[in-house]
Structures are given as structure tokens and as C-alpha cells.
Design brief:
32% of the residues lie in helices and 20% in strands. The chain is α/β, with parallel strands linked by helices. The protein folds into 2 domains: 231 residues, Alkaline Phosphatase, subunit A; 143 residues, no CATH class. The strands form 6 sheets. Strands 4-19-10-3-9-7-8 form a 7-stranded mixed sheet, sandwiched between helices. Helix 8 runs parallel beside helix 10 and helix 9 runs antiparallel to helix 10. The chain is globular. The two termini are 30 Å apart. The mean pLDDT is 95. InterPro entries: Alkaline_phosphatase_core_sf, Phosphodiest/P_Trfase. GO terms for molecular function: hydrolase activity. This is Alkaline phosphatase family protein.
């Protein structure tokens, strides 16, 4: 596949109106292995060589992960945001698919472990683990009532190990610039509500890193405002403007603080893209014609298992005798793919080599709507009322950029 051949990737991965993950080559899941390989470490599968052709003697890799800024968002904003055009002139934008689900909780666990969702077992933002008899949000690690789960430890949310001890053993120093503390690397935190604090945290990382080094910077602001206002909104555009102004400032800062002993590679990517849904039409599974709550399995205390996956990646844990009828009703009433559990496993939708953790958390049915949110009315405002969403298989959710350029070319 040619480096920038988006049409070939789309054609190969297209399945009707849906786009499937390209786990075998051009997938976001292979970015961490690629970064490690550039720095002389081996921690997992990498992207094809064409993704990094021409980059040699790399001593520092800097990754800006802009949450929710998929390839459709890059293309939509590039004429308006000068920095994006500057980056294109200096380097290359390679199209990748996200993992399934195209959700932050699943994708970031992949990014930090170099394992696929089928392996690490984080099936979406919301997880039901029958062994622990718990429903919880994977990010953050809380129940719906705000309390911390009592029957599962945070360390057991993902069935995977962090890549950072391996990078450290290979002599690579890692720094994280994030709006939350990081325990597995050198942390540099900033206020997510005030992007002006990002540059100070990034400067601390850039000045403190000893090469070979890897600096990871996470910016979730575009995703957050997209959920609330939609990607086709002034608020989204203003947030994108500010985000890339900060990224541009961070690159300028790198140029001032980086020595010339080795090449610095700058990368911009995203965990997923976004699509605008319609809150007036998003589907409430608690209401007619579905009324699904009574069909659900329950926790041992009798609580129905409503929350697993997300509105674009719904996992239904059903009473066994109700699976067939619910499947038929959803298939008839929704413009959606309704996968049975065995279909998911046979298709490697979440990746090959499923772990026991993944298999027990996987729903009896997985519902992927073409362009709407599907959830339970208990969270009507928090979830069904969102505008932009992600998690499904729409091409605008699934396609993400992997933009690369040397620091010298960006100066």
C-alpha cells in the first residue's frame, strides 16, 4: 500500500457503509511499536516501513495525540488552520484506521500497551466484568454513582502491561504531558480546562528529557467540545485553533531546546475521529419499541446491566432465552449492525487472540449503529444528548491521521 493512498485503504477495509480496522498493517495499534523501533527498542508490531521512510538516526520522538481529531477533522480544518498546512508541507500525513471500538478507553489502553482490545479486554468506556460483578467506567475508574469499584482493582481493568518499563530497559526515557498524573513515566501535568498551562508542562518535559527519549503529549479538548457542541460548530473550530496553536508553540519550543546530536521526529495522531449524531433521534433502548431493561442480565444485587460499551458500541448482556428475540427486534428496527458474540469472535472485530478477560466482558450482542447513538435513558442527558460521538465503524470515526515530520523540516 502506498504511504498516502487513502482510497486504497478505504476500499480494502470498507464493508458496506462501515470501515473495519486494518489490524494487520495500517492501524493506530501499530504506532507504539513504530515509535519504539525508531528509538531502537522492540515492543510490538510496527507500521509498514513506508510510514517512516527517510527518518534515520532518530534520538527523540514527540507524539501529540489530539483526542477526537480524526482524518475527517484534519481534512475539514486544514484550509482554516495554517499549522496543519505547515505540517503537511514539512512531512507526511498517513491514513490509519483506529481500533474497534473507536473509543478513547480502548484505544489508549492499546496505545500504552501495544495490545489490541481483544487482548487487553477494555471493550469500551463502560465495562461489565462478570467475575468482579461490577459495572464501571474504565476512564475514569468509577461506577455510575461516582464511587470506586470495590470488587476489582484498577490494575485489573486492562489485561496488559505498560510498554514503558520495556522502553526504559532499552534505554529510552519517556515523559508524559497529560492533564492527569502518570505513574509509569516521568509525568508533567497541566490543567485540561486551561490550555495556556500546556506549554509550561511541555517545556518541563522537553528540557528534562535525556535522549534517546519519547515525549507523549495528550490533548483531549477537541473531543470534549465535540461531544457537547458537535464538530460542525464554532466552539469546535475555536478549540481546534487553540489546540494547534499550543502544539505549534510546543514545536517552536522544541527547536529552541533540542541539540543537534540526533534527529527529532514530531508526530501528530488521534485515537479516533468523530461524527455528529442527532440528539433528537438518538435511540433509547429503555423505551418502546425496545423496552430492553427486563431482558438484561443483572448483578447479584439485582441491578440490570445497562452500561457496557458506549452509545456507538453497545454491549448487551442478556438473559439467554432473550438473545434471539432481542437480536431480531434490533435488526428490524435499527439501521445498525447487530453482531452476535460468536460473530464478533469469528471476525476478529476487536482483534485476534482474544483473552479470557475480553471474552467474559464481551456482550451477547454488540450493536453498532450507522450514524446515531444507542443507549439507555438512564443517561439521556449524559450520553443520548451528546452531539458528536465515536466508538463505531463509520469511516469518520475509524480513520485517523499519523502525521510525521522532522523537527528540522518544521523550523
Amino acid at each position: 500500500m502506498q504511504l498516502s493512498d487513502l482510497s486504497a485503504l478505504r476500499k480494502r477495509q470498507q464493508d458496506g457503509d462501515y470501515l473495519l480496522p486494518a489490524y494487520e498493517d495500517w492501524c493506530f495499534s501499530r504506532v507504539p511499536g513504530t515509535i519504539a523501533d525508531l528509538l531502537g527498542a522492540d515492543i510490538g508490531p510496527r507500521l509498514p516501513d513506508a510510514a517512516t521512510d527517510g527518518y534515520g538516526d532518530v534520538s527523540r520522538v514527540v507524539v501529540f495525540l489530539v483526542d477526537g481529531f480524526g482524518l475527517a477533522q484534519w481534512d475539514g480544518e486544514r484550509e482554516r488552520v495554517p499549522f496543519l498546512r505547515r505540517f503537511e508541507r514539512a512531512g507526511t500525513v498517513t491514513p490509519l484506521t483506529s481500533v474497534y471500538p473507536s473509543e478513547t478507553a480502548a484505544a489508549l489502553n492499546t496505545f500504552h500497551s501495544a495490545t489490541l482490545p481483544a487482548e487487553h479486554g477494555v471493550i469500551g468506556w463502560n465495562v461489565y466484568d462478570p467475575d468482579a460483578d461490577e459495572m464501571f467506567e474504565a476512564l475514569p475508574f468509577i461506577r455510575k454513582d461516582g464511587s470506586e469499584p470495590e470488587r476489582i482493582d484498577f490494575e485489573d481493568v486492562a489485561n496488559a502491561e505498560s510498554i514503558y518499563p520495556e522502553l526504559s530497559a532499552a534505554g529510552v526515557e519517556t515523559h508524559h504531558v497529560t492533564p492527569f498524573p502518570s505513574e509509569s513515566t516521568v509525568p508533567h501535568t497541566y490543567d485540561p480546562e486551561d490550555l495556556s498551562t500546556f506549554l509550561d508542562a511541555f517545556a518541563e518535559a522537553a528540557e528534562g528529557a535525556t535522549d534517546p527519549s519519547y515525549i507523549f503529549a495528550y490533548l483531549p479538548q477537541t473531543d470534549a467540545i465535540g461531544h457537547a457542541e458537535g464538530v460542525d460548530s464554532d466552539a469546535y473550530r475555536e478549540t481546534a485553533d487553540e489546540t494547534f496553536a499550543r502544539v505549534s508553540g510546543a514545536i517552536d519550543m522544541l527547536a529552541e531546546t533540542t541539540d543537534d546530536d540526533g534527529e527529532t521526529l514530531v508526530c501528530i495522531t488521534a485515537d479516533h475521529g468523530l461524527i455528529d449524531t442527532d440528539p433528537d433521534r438518538n435511540v433509547d433502548l429503555s423505551a418502546p419499541p425496545f423496552d430492553l431493561v427486563s431482558d438484561l442480565k443483572t448483578l447479584t444485587d439485582g441491578t440490570p446491566i445497562r452500561f457496557a460499551g458506549s452509545p456507538r458500541n453497545v454491549h448487551l448482556h442478556l438473559e439467554p432465552e432473550r438473545i434471539d428475540e432481542v437480536h431480531d427486534t434490533l435488526t428490524a428496527e435499527l439501521d445498525a449492525r447487530v453482531f452476535r458474540k460468536q460473530e464478533v469472535l469469528d471476525s476478529d472485530l476487536f482483534g485476534p487472540n482474544p483473552s479470557a478477560t475480553f471474552e467474559r466482558r464481551l456482550g451477547d450482542l454488540v450493536v453498532v449503529h450507522q450514524d446515531l447513538g444507542v443507549w439507555f435513558g438512564d443517561e439521556e442527558e449524559a450520553e443520548l444528548g451528546l452531539v458528536a460521538m465515536h466508538g463505531g465503524l463509520h469511516p469518520d470515526e475509524m480513520l485517523v491521521p499519523f502525521a510525521t515530520a522532522t523537527l528540522d523540516s518544521l523550523r
